[in-house]
Design a protein that fits this description.
Distance between the termini: 37 Å
Number of strands: 4
Largest sheet: 4 strands, antiparallel
Radius of gyration: 14 Å
Oligomer: single chain
Length: about 80
């Protein structure tokens, strides 16, 4: 697996390859016509920003700071966990 620092310096296409092969998809959220996909890779998160109208990835952001994942909290459904 690749470290956060090594991931951040990869070219865009290599980041996409690593996400496809090694990352675990968590969930996505929508904001202002853009979809933001959250993945877990090893010990850090990766957010992929995608524009459906343009049909392309706008950016990839990797981070360890859990507070940066707060935007996803409203999109987590734990209702199936209740008996």
């Amino acid at each position: 697996m690749i470290s956060l620092n090594d991931f951040q310096i990869l070219p865009f296409d290599k980041k996409c390859d690593f996400i496809t092969v090694f990352a675990d998809y968590i969930l996505y959220r929508e904001e202002a016509g853009t979809k933001h996909y959250l993945y877990l890779m090893k010990d850090y998160f990766v957010e992929v920003n995608y524009s459906p109208s343009e049909g392309k990835v706008l950016g990839i952001h990797a981070f360890k700071n859990l507070s940066l994942a707060d935007a996803y909290l409203d999109h987590i459904d734990i209702s199936d966990l209740y008996y």
